[in-house]
């Protein structure tokens, strides 16, 4: 055991000497490993960070949540011209479905409408994401409040001029003052602030709740009517846990077809979008990003491997005389073999550590600059180090075998 520890120490010393004596050659050779490890770990860290952010953003939503609307979340076999003729789901359909559907934990109604400006005294915030929803939305979305509350059923049904502000909107309008009970102007009307949401950070899919305001859906219906072509309506259904989702979707289709008077043979003029389908789509994209990252980085690692092999062949050539002396003094072939293998691995790991350090520096900088938490997990650090060691092992095996098989007499004579 002590012999191999001494061997490891000597190999580390030789590797450091290679770096000191041939700085440019060694650094250029290590550059391939550095770039390869950097590329792989950067992609994996980015994907892990995205996955963590998506999980956090969507944690409040049940994967079985259904969005009933005229658009599809994914590709559809129905021609586009026919899909464009699909009608919006209406509030009357929401109230009908709410009474007709079984096995439903919550059902809400939302209107996707255009962005607006919101004012308080002399301050104005433009391009605000306005979300008109029914009162059930808080139970479906799982909103968390910094202060105040969401509007109740009575306020929602009457279309009361009450509003819930996202954290960023509240700060821009009121700075350090308490907004609860204050009046803001939206759609030319005075809305009373009844709640402020907790800060949640930047959103991956457009607006986050920080830059959003929520108002009763019936206010917008009273303002624009139910035939507004500039908006998109959606019925959100949250089924009870443990039910058969296919049967539940069939029930939705049967109930809405019946209400709309669709005949047998006619296609559904609506889409039943299950939220899990959307998350599966995102997971697929993240998986493809991982694959592309591995392919691109693989070429860099291949170049890095050749660079390490080149260093080791040169090292064997330079130390031929030393190898001969070691063998003449009784050094075994495996001792010489391990000596050069360890040296190759140490050089490669140094290149990998540089790559990991670059990923860490960039992740720290980006986290501060773009308000998005990039995470370099311990698993990716271990993976990067392990890959670097593997590249060193593979690249150093041929030079190490060549060194271990040198004849001691010829080696001493050649090195003189």
UniProtKB/TrEMBL annotation:
Keywords: Cell membrane, Membrane, Transmembrane, Transmembrane helix. It comes from the Bacteria. The chain crosses the membrane at residues 26-47, 291-314, 335-362, 374-398. Residues 294-408 form the ABC3 transporter permease C-terminal domain. It is a multi-pass membrane protein. Residues 26-254 form the MacB-like periplasmic core domain. Coiled coil: none annotated. It is found in: Cell membrane. The keyword Transcription does not apply. GO terms for cellular component: plasma membrane. PANTHER family: ABC TRANSPORTER PERMEASE YTRF (PTHR30572:SF4), MEMBRANE COMPONENT OF TRANSPORTER-RELATED (PTHR30572). This is Putative ABC transport system permease protein. It comes from Flavobacterium xinjiangense. The lineage of its organism: Bacteria, Pseudomonadati, Bacteroidota, Flavobacteriia, Flavobacteriales.
